[in-house]
Every structure is written in structure tokens, then in C-alpha cells.
Amino acid sequence: MENSVSELKNYELDYKGKGEDLFGITIVNWLLTAVTLGFYYPWAKAKRLQYLYSNTTLNDEPFAFHGTGKEMFKGFIKALLIFAALYGVLFLFLYLEMPGMGLILFYLGFLAIFPIAIHGAYRYRMSRTSWRGIRFGYRGDRKEFTLEFFKNIGLTIITLGIYGSWMTINLRRYLLGNIRFGNTEFEYEGDGGEYFVMNLKNYFLTIFTLGIYIFWWQKELFEYYVNNLSVHKGKENLEFRSKVTGGGFLKLSIVNFFIVIFTLGLGYSWAFTRNMKYFLSNIELEGNLCLDTITQTEANYNDATGEDLEDALDMDFVL
Amino acid sequence: MLFKTTARFYDGKTSVPQNIEVFLDIKQDKLSFENGQQKIVWKNTAIKFSKNNNNLICEHGNDPIQQIFISDADFIKKTYPILKSKGHQHWYDGLVNLGFMNHLLIAISLLALIGLSYVYVLPWVAEKAVTIIPESYDNEIGQLAFNEEMLLNKIDSSKTKTLNQFASELKLNNKKKLKFTVVNSDIVNAYALPDGNIVVFTGILNALQSTEELAGLLGHESSHVNNRHSMKMLCRNLSGYLFISAILGDANGVMAIIGDNVNSLNNLSFSRKFETEADNDGYTVLIKNNLNPEGMTKLFTRLKEEETIDIPEFLSSHPVTDERIKEIQKRIKSGKHNTIDNQKLTFLFQKIKE
């Protein structure tokens, strides 16, 4: 054991899915969702996620998604009730002829859904994800995160959006920093100022190059996400390194564009597969973290309300 | 039947892979292996079997989840079909394993079905749905669109007055009170809003040469109001949007569609069916008022002259005027009509033309 701490280990992250298989799942999901007038959607989503996770591998061993359609259906109903309650309050105040008050409460409530959704989605997704039978987990505190969220939103509004870069990084640091994989801990070390300068630089370069530079901007965004991420367990560490290139992004986007256009959209599954493959196979892991000695620590959590709220708000899972 | 192979076992407590020997007993429908000193037996009915790349994964339990990974290709080839036949495959996987050609076929059929219901079923349903929407809603959005339009346009008040007099002399078969407004603009156009507001541009008034042409135009536009064509189109667009978003699993932007439509009510392209209906009503107005129905065809000829670009008919939401002229000519030939000179209308028409 003493030895393994200092020794560098080999890690390989990859995506092994095939466009054809994803296409099959997409079509079957589509058919079942259409036939059931939409009710199959949570189950369809579970199947899709199960497929995507199980084809993502670390050292040739797949991840697994254990979420079920039933959980997400229940979550969907709860999310629906939350939205209904929100509109209920609005209409109650309209009925009482206090539209101003009603609108203020409505918007505040609506804004408050965001941190609750993000928090809930992280807890659910992480708890439902595993590798070698060891669950991920999210240890963030809802109240703490909501306060952090409102503090950052407030500052972003006051600074007319400039603080947005800091907000993104602060929230990311909180969310990713609270992720656990068994007894290992994730850490994100981004800095708002650095992120702001990077975006500013890329913004102008993109304008000067009439948009072409956007692929190199994407590359830097991806790098900023990945390169600041690490996993720790005692003295053992695992660092993430991005190998993506601007040229790679350019080629990926152009080829995907043609795949989707020439198949009238049906080729989306192949384009998506190409993305997954490109992103995951271009993340390098370096360090001495022993993958064989991780122990189960995270509790089960099967309330999918946050997940469904996020879905209803059309938010991406990754922040 | 007993199958045996080596596998990796994860006990759900640590991430260490444990190499085990697995026995799959088909007859007793169970799976057994030794973990350390302990002999473990799982009932196959309690296991979730799934094939992933080159692995057969056997998942057992909920908290913790225990997994066995079998990579032995020969073993998988022999046992998986048996497991499948014994019902250890989810029906969903059966559908997923139908193969690419079948999936493509399903996709194309679904697309065709969606396309067909979008083109044929949906408009019909949407039009029927209009009857349950109260007329007051027509008035509200019509008024909203009118106010917005008039902010940007200059009203010719004296011509507006004369045009209203002209219209009141006509029997327009209107169910709703109509209000005509003349707007100063070179555009050769007129449009009807659902609340009974009909806006006529000076451009089209200048192009018209006779009383019956104007009467035909007003008859045409009032038909749009009478038949709630705007509302029908709105319902159609909205239901089309809802339909598509239901399929794509996204219901945002409904409000945006309503907003868009309110803003573009004036150039809302009526479907060909609605245009033909309005043309026929315009013709009826001319007959009823003892005006020469040729006014209708003349009106179209004027409009056609103004149209510089030829759009193929199937691309255009407005039927090409040639088609409309032919259809009206057919009606003129088939019916009888008396023409009486209406001095008052002629006088008002001249006044508008000044």
C-alpha cells in the first residue's frame, strides 16, 4: 500500500456506444412516447441515460445509471405540483386584485426553483450513478446552495452581468466540490477572474475572426472545466487533463452538421455519439489514486423531483 | 443444464474486483458463486441481466447493488439466448434489438404519420376547436393588433369616412360590426382583423378602377371576419406547435406563438381554402348587391399586375391569382346575375379615388 501511493497509475476514460444502438433506443423511445401520449417519457429518459452511462467506461469498466422511470415519473408529478402551486399563488393574488404582489412572489418563487432544481438533480443523478458498484454522491446543502445562488445572482444583476463569470465558477466549485465517489472527493479549482478574462479574450477573437474562433473558445471552455477538476482520497490524487483542440472541435462540428442535415435529423444519434466519443476519449487522467480500494460511503437517494424540475426548465445537467 | 465461467464480482462495499467462478443453473433458474468462504446463490428472477459491449452484467439487490461481470464470449453466446427465452430480458430490450432496418422503418412510418396528421387531421381539429373559443377573444386580439399597427401607420381620415359610407351602402352579410380604415401606403394590400377591423391601403385603392372591384374586395375581406379565418389560423398554428412540441417533449414557447401571431395577424397567410371561401363570399356580395361579378376577376387582374415575382403555386400560401380568376370565372358562367347601376356607390367610389 505504501508503494501504491507514490506510483503513477494508468487510467483510461472512453465512450464505447455506437450511433446505431443509440438510434435504436431513440426510435423505440419515440414510438413508446408517442403511443402513450407522452406518459412513457420518464421511462424513455431512464433507458437513454442507462445506455449512455453503461457505455462510458473507466479502464474498460462501465459506469451505470440506476435511476428508473418510476422514480422520474414521481418526480415529474411533484415538479408539476410545484409549478401548479406557483401559478396558484399568482392567480390568487390576481383574484385579490394585488397583481404587483402576486408577480413579485411568482418571480421570486420561480427563481427559487432554479437552485432547488440544481441541488435536487445533483443529489439524484449522483446517487444513481455508480462504477464497480460504488455510488457517487452529492453532499451539498440545499439551504447553503440556495443562499450562494441568490448571492451570486444578485451580484450578477447589480454588475449588469459582468459577475456572471464569477457566478458560474463559484457555483461550479460548490457543486463539483461536493461530489463524492465512495470515499473519494471531487474538487474544482476554477477562478472567476481567470474565467472572465478567458471569455473576454475569446469573445473579441471570435468577433475579429468573424466567428471562426468560436471552436477555439469552445476548446478553452472545455479545458477550463476539465483541467480544474481533480479527485482526492487522503494522499492519493487524480487530475483531469483535456486533450481537445480547436481544430478537433471545428472538424467535429462541421461533420456533425452534415450528418444531421443530410439525414434530415435522423442522424442525430450518430452526431451525438461522435461528440461523446470525442469528449470522453480526450480527457486524460493522471495520478496515483488507487481505483481498487474505494469503499461505499454514499447513501441512496431516489427522489427525482430536482431532475424533473431541471428538465421542465430546459436546463442542462452540467453546470 | 449447468454453465460455468470465471467472472469479476463487485460486492457493493468496495471497488476491488474479486475473481470468482460462476455457475449458472438453467434448470433451477439460479446463479451461484463463492465469495471468500461464503457460498452465494442468487435467483435468476431477482437478477437484472444486461448485455453491454462484450460483457454480460448480472445485477442483484438494491442497496447495495452487487454486480457480476462476465466477459467470456463463448459463455455469453451459449447462455444469453436461453436467458432471453426464459423471460430474463425486458420487453424493451426486445424492441431495441429489432435491428437497424426495423428502427429506420419505424422512424420513417412515425415521421409519415406525424406529417399526415399535421397536414390533414390537425387543421380539421383546430377549426372545430374555434367554435368553443368565445368571440370576445377575437375582439381582444384583433383590437390589440389594430392598435399596434396604427402606431406605425398614417390613417387617411377623410377616405376612411367615405369608405365606411361605401361599405354601409353594401349588403356585406356581416355578422359582426365592421370598421374600415384607410391607411396611407403604397402597398397594394388590405387585411381583416378578427374583431371586424378591416384595413385598406391607399395603394390598393389607387389600383382599383371600378365600383364593383372595391365591393368585391370588401366582400372578400369581410368574409375573413365572418368565418373567423384569423382565429382558425391561430388555432391551427398553435395546435401545430403543441403537436410538434408534444412529440419532441417540449412545451415551452406556447406564449411566444400567441404573441407572434398577434403581431403578424395582418400578414397571417390564410390557407388557400380560406382564400377561396372568401373569394366566393366576395362574389356572393356582388350578386346580392346587383353589381357585376366581373368585378371579382378584375380585382384579381389588378392584384396580379402588382405581383412582380412568380411564386410556384405549391410554395405560396395565397393561391396564385390565375387560379382564383379561373375559379371565379367558372362561377360567373354557371350563375345568372342582374346588374343595376348603383349611383350612390359609384359616387362614393369616385370620391375615394380623388
Automatic annotation (TrEMBL), chain A:
InterPro entries: DUF898 (IPR010295). Pfam families: DUF898. The chain crosses the membrane at residues 22-43, 76-96, 102-124, 145-166, 200-217, 249-271. The keyword Amino-acid biosynthesis does not apply. Keywords: Membrane, Transmembrane, Transmembrane helix. It comes from the Bacteria. Coiled coil: none annotated. The keyword Transmembrane helix applies. This is DUF898 domain-containing protein. It comes from Flavobacterium amnicola.
UniProtKB/TrEMBL annotation, chain B:
The keyword Metal-binding applies. CDD domains: M48C_Oma1_like. GO terms for biological process: proteolysis involved in protein catabolic process. GO terms for molecular function: metal ion binding; metalloendopeptidase activity. Residues 162-331 form the Peptidase M48 domain. It comes from the Bacteria. Keywords: Hydrolase, Membrane, Metal-binding, Metalloprotease, Protease, Transmembrane, Transmembrane helix, Zinc. It holds the Pfam family Peptidase_M48. Its cofactor is Zn(2+). Gene3D superfamilies: Metalloproteases ('zincins'), catalytic domain. InterPro entries: Mito/Outer_Membr_Metalloprot, Peptidase_M48. GO terms for cellular component: membrane. The chain crosses the membrane at residues 100-121, 238-259. Binds 1 zinc ion per subunit. Belongs to the peptidase M48 family. This is M48 family metallopeptidase.
